[in-house]
Amino acid sequence: MDGGVTSDIRREPVTEASAWRGRDLEADRSWEYTLTDEHIGELEKALDQAADASLIELDLASFRHPALTELMRSVRRDVQYGRGIALLHDFPVAGHSYAEIERLYWGLGSHVGTGVTQNSDAALIHYVTDGKLRPQMGKRTVGHPDEVGLHADMSDVVSLLCVRQAPDDPYSRLASSMHIYNELLRQRPDALERLYEGFEWDRHDEHADHETPTSVYKVPVYSHKDGVVTCRYNPGWIKRAYQRLERSLTDEETEIFSFMNSIAAEACIAFPFHAGDIQFANNYTVLHGRAGHGEVSDEDRKRVLMRLWLDFDKDTRPYVHEGLVRYGVVRHGALGWTAGDLAAGRHREPRKRTDKGVSIV
Question: How many independent structural domains does the chain possess?
Answer without folding.
Answer: 1
